[in-house]
Amino acid sequence: MESATTRPAAADDPDAGGPPAALRLSGLHKTFGANTAVDHVDLVVPQGSFFGLVGPNGAGKTTSLSMAVGLLRPDEGTSQVFGVDVWSDPVEAKALIGVLPDGLSMPERLTGRELLTYIGQLRGIEAGVLAGRVQELLDVMELGAAERTLVVDYSTGMRKKIGLATALLHGPRLLVLDEPFEAVDPVSAAALKAILTGFVASGGSVVLSSHVMPLVEQLCDTVAVMAGGRVVAAGPLAEVRGGGTLEQTFVRLVGGDEQGRRGLSWLAS
């Protein structure tokens, strides 16, 4: 397998005297029985970056992100958020992170406002502050018209938006989003993109996992490619994709089934 791994700029590396990375994964490793899902992954997400994590199904993206944010304990390795260890100091670390997992489960017999209020109360946000944040999030996410609609009756796009709202509610410095645009209609996707780019422009950092290469190229300034539980390329978008598109680089690095690319014999002309 071809590798083109590069490191992000040293200014974002605490070892080089710069500010701590928004997210630093060091030697993360996870096995499930005989299967190695994540194989000693090292990854640095610079502060203020819009970071894209791409890879085929089974590459280890979701497992890596789950370990990174404290949802799944690694067999080996560490995850640090702005220099705070996720596993030795989980309360402080998780206060800095907003997470939108793939297939997010949430209390569905609540309205959007009730859900956000409930999450805010769990977070310990003062009542007056919480009410203002809930209203602002509903307005920005364009969910105000669904004031009395239960989450169980939300469309896929609405569920993604309310999920992102729960991730933003406590004012995190880092968002970690696993397939946030999957099955989302174009109108909702445009709204989500605007919110995320605005978050980065205001000083936040985003890690986005996606299968959609044009989307990553549109939004992200830094990317990493995973395959077989390992990072096979990482760095600024322009460096990783070289002279081609990100999709072309991805196919070259990850490879694929040549028979599948040729197509089905009985459909050939």
CATH topology of the largest domain: Rossmann fold
* Count of distinct strands: 10
Average pLDDT, to the nearest integer? 88
Give a quick account of the main beta sheet: strands, pairing sense, barrel closure.
6 strands, mixed
| Head-to-tail CA distance between termini | 33 Å
Helix content range of the residues, please?
25-40%
CATH superfamily of the largest domain: P-loop containing nucleotide triphosphate hydrolases
- Strands ordered across the widest β-sheet: 6-7-8-3-9-10
CATH classification class of the largest domain: Alpha Beta
Number of domains: 2
Strand-residue proportion: 15-25%
Q: Enumerate the spans where pLDDT stays under 50 for 5 or more consecutive residues.
A: 1-12
Class inferred from helices and paired strands: alpha/beta
Q: Please work out how many helical segments DSSP would assign.
A: 10
Cα radius of gyration in angstroms? 19 Å
What's the CATH architecture name of the largest domain?
A: 3-Layer(aba) Sandwich
Shape: globular
The H-and-E topology, N to C, reads as: EEEHEEHEHHHEHEHEEHHH
Task: Report what the structure shows.
The chain is α/β, with parallel strands linked by helices and 269 residues long. It has two domains: 1-96 and 177-255, P-loop containing nucleotide triphosphate hydrolases (Rossmann fold), CATH 3.40.50; 104-171, no CATH class. 35% of the residues lie in helices and 23% in strands. It contains ten helices and ten strands. It has a six-stranded mixed beta sheet with strand order 6-7-8-3-9-10, with helices on both faces. The chain has a four-stranded antiparallel beta sheet with strand order 2-1-4-5. α3 (112-123) crosses α4 (127-140).
